[in-house]
Amino acid sequence: MPKPRMRMRTPKLTPMPRTLMTTTIITTATTMMTTITTTSIANTSIITAIPMLMTTSKPPAKPRRSRVARADLPTDAAMAPAGNRDGMDETEAAALYRLMTWLSPAFPVGAFSYSSGIEWAVEAGDIADALSLRDWLASMLTDGSGFCDGVFLAATHRAASRRGLSALREIAELAAAFVPSRERALETISQGRAFVDIARAAWHCDGLDPLIAACDGAIVYPTAVGLVSAAHAIPLSATMHAFLHAVVSNWISAGSRLIPLGQTDSQRVLAALEPIVAATAQRALNASLDDLGSATFRADLASLRHETQYTRLFRS
């Protein structure tokens, strides 16, 4: 009998579930997963995780810069604490500008042509070097015309600020009568007249003319400075310090030409007189007309004797 043939059964291939196929593709593409289950939950997890894995290989995105308008940026002044901000307001800047101009050596009041008697003091040997010039000027500041002119400036400024016209006239008359010599009178009245005329012509001020008219006579230099600065609402303290600095600078300029002195020595004298100028200004601000007085007899005699001095470079 023939042997029966054995039929070879081909095993039936079961199609791969969609879940496993998706998992296999994902695993091959990324090569970053080691074990994958075929459950639907795992499939969901892997599909969710793949975008995260793919994005980690990219460079991190640059943070976007916030666009802020330049107008919205805080300025240094706005960020500074109150009361500690740099700079000045418009009124303060104008006051400083005018003081620097009016009391500058370049302001044309003719101060360079007067020495306040220093020329005779150099001729007589009282002033011979920087040290003796400093001592002479320190006395003139504290006990002579420096202090007295400061008192007249302060009294004029206060009277003009409150529009005390009758008081202005009395102050102007007393200041003109207080000058010790004819040449000193010529010096201070000429400078006062020039100061008022030039300041009035260059800087318009509605309230200045009535104050000038109230003086009704000669206006000496310190009175003129007090009058004009008050009309322009410039603070008295700043005016006082600027005025005394200008007076001392002119004295040193005269002395440096007469002795003569170099520029460095002249500046040393000015630096040495700084505390004396400050102290004299404070005294004058706190004084009244009753405190007027002078004890610089030698300086007064110098201004008198200068009138008959044989050779002269200065008018006083």
Q: What's the quick description here?
A:
With about 325 residues, the chain is mostly helical. It has a domain at about 130-175 and about 190-300: Urease accessory protein UreF, CATH 1.10.4190.10.
Properties at a glance:
single chain, 316 residues, 15 helices, 0% strand
DSSP strand tally: 0
In the CATH hierarchy, the architecture of the domain at 128-176 and 189-300 is Orthogonal Bundle
Shape: globular
Cα separation of the termini:
166 Å
What is the percent of helical residues?
55-70%
Spell out the helices and strands N to C: HHHHHHHHHHHHHHH
- State the low-pLDDT regions, or none: 19-59, 65-84
As a percent range, the share of strand residues is under 5%
Helices and strands, with pairings:
Layout: H1 18-30, H2 40-56, H3 76-79, H4 90-102, H5 118-124, H6 130-143, H7 145-161, H8 165-177, H9 182-202, H10 208-215, H11 221-231, H12 236-258, H13 263-272, H14 274-286, H15 297-305
